[in-house]
Amino acid sequence: MTNRLSGLAKVDDDQRVGTDATAGKGNGVDGINEGAMRGGEPKEQPWEGLPEKTVDVPPDGGYGWVCVACVATINGHTWGLNSSYAVFLAYYLSNNIFPNATALEYAFIGGLSISQALIISPVATMTTRLYGTRTTLLIGVLFETASFIAASFASEIWHLFLSQGICFGWGMGFQFVGSVVIAPQWFTNRRSLANGIAAAGSGLGGLTYSLAAQAMIKSIGLPWAFRTLGIIAFVVNTTCSLLIKDRNKQIGSSQLSFDYRLFKRPQFLGLLAFGFLSMLGYVVLLFSLPNYARRVGMTASQGSIIGAVFNLGQALGRPPIGYFSDSLGRLNMASSMTALCGVFCLLIWIFAKSFGVLILFAILGGTVAGTYWAVVGPITTEVIGIVDLSSALSITWLVLVLPTTFSEPIGLEIVALNGTYTGAILFTGFMYLGAACILWLVRAWKIGELEEKEANLRTEGLIRPKAGVDEGIGAQTTGQSSAILSKSSFVKRMIMWRRV
Question: Per the record, which residues fall in region Disordered (predicted)?
């Protein structure tokens, strides 16, 4: 039996058991129940006593695709707009809009918008529980719109901290928390593909608004550029918020802002460490490429193009990451693509001194740099389960506040200390490699969990024995059957291949 069993509470198409012993049709729960009835006596079900809500099977499509399109559009008009901050940064520095403001202060504004989006997540989760997903999204739309309007009247640097940093971050956070769990609720087999498509919206938005913001600033001026972006975000995100439908009632989502019991699970701590290191690398990469281009002798226009190409890479890379995650394994894909980004940084970016080579790195690095955002929902569901997903993600967002706030300032301080970007590039590359190594450990744990569950189900007689192993040997005791499929050693699980 090579099918993966990610938990009795999560039965999807690639995790069904007992279908070989039954008619082969219907959902996985029916297959197990029929298999348990063999011999005339029903066997005790492993989930006996658990709430019925834990066996909900998502439709894996249908209106879910409308929701995916809406989430992708919201991502484009939140995270994508945030990616265009590099254009505003270049304008601030070159035109001395805010006297006495330093580059480090501007760097903190970019990081602050991301960290505030994450730090507001418990409030957004509580709002979702009390008032629903749609209300949470609309609150975020109002905050985001207000941030652009307020920024258009900014005359001091602290005005930008409040508007483009904190207020925009809160708006982005409410919309992110309200929308990030939607795709996993609607999909099973194609969950990672759906999440990848949704995440690609941020790359497309970053590409579009990196170019559009520069054009608007040049043609209508900075204040009206802000106001125009605010109006666009309000109209588009409001429409998407009204179209999105969640499945919280069907799956029985806990919607707890904090479930401290999750900290007792080592695999969850591994996911947190994976996200922490990934963000230390990602934020430096996201905001540094245009400035790096200018440091090596390119023009501001070339720098903005490189930033736009990087966002294009994110848009192109995230759907394939999601697609192959469903076929090759979500943890396999996430860890390998994260490691690949680190390799690109250390082998291409560090030697990129010409426009052509930097464009190559931007497109290649962009395809894998945002792997975390493409997989965070599916791999958290894989490891923690759909019922505790909202609580797990709320804790995750808070843990990511520190790296997202200080990553870019750390990168700029390394540049200031060494006089070149070499140290910052090494820092970025090794953060990605470290994140990949930690997730590989989580993968090894997951394989062990699957092996244990397969052994338990075989002991209960709920799955057929493997051909050539149990069949033809004769009747076996429960202990013998369990021993045949015992858990491998951790070292073996580190090097073995399995779709997980």
Answer: 1-49
